[in-house]
Amino acid sequence: MAEQTYLQRDQPAGVPPLALTGERTLPDVPEENYWFQRHLVVYEWIARRVAGQKVVDMACGEGYGSDVLARTAAEVVGVDANPEAHEHARLRYVRPNLRFERDLVETFSEPCDAVVFLQTIEHVQDPGAILEHFKAMDAKTVYVTTPNVLTLAPDGEKSGNPWHVKEYRAHEFRALCETHFSRVEMTGLFHARKLAAHQFAIERMGWDALHPRLRITKPFYDRLTPAISVRDFRFATDPLDKALDFLAVCTP
Fold first, then answer.
1. Are 5 and 19 within 8 A, CB to CB?
2. What is the pLDDT of residues 38-87, one digit of tens each?
3. Which site from 69, 120, 159, 162 is most exposed, i.e. has the minimal number of CB atoms within 10 Å?
4. SS3 call for 20
5. How far apart, in whole angstroms, are the C-alpha atoms of residue 139 and residue 17?
6. d(CA 120, CA 142)
């Protein structure tokens, strides 16, 4: 049986919808809402810290994050090499202080106050070279996130995501960033509210074994997933080994 293809719903006139491939997350796909909100909450966290700055959003994908940053930043440049994503972002997110450039993260370079590089470093072959490239852009702050391999893969080795080259434990990610920056502040993203309750039910009450026997898996997740919001996540510095994602705030 062929895999189902999910397209973005309800796009503005003239904006081509993107297909969900697993390489990037998308808004306007109800089945993807957990991952979208998990990414969105980080963009909102950063947006509160870059007010009045020039920001380069590297590997910006669909463009929603660049748009969030542009609500507070003086200027935002969203950079992505994918032609479909670039065209979609350019047409959908229009602000006087926001523009999109089609380029590689390894080659795009403009002086800026902050570089944002979210959920992408696990995709690259030479992460150290990319961090050095960001430093050369004279950014005062570089924000980098990556998923915690310990929550992606139970054996702590690597998940089955075909787009990921290297997945990190907390100490590995910190060591990578500290090799290239003089100061690194690490925090973690965790479940909150209903997602914390759901996680407790899975880990302590065997919920993942129960709902298939009750034949309610699809109706349950059809209701839960679209209802998830940024309020269902929280930031904390400990215990990082149990975080969903790591956020490193790096300064030269």
1. yes
2. 999 999 999 999 999 999 999 999 999 999 999 999 999 999 999 999 99
3. 162
4. coil
5. 33
6. 13
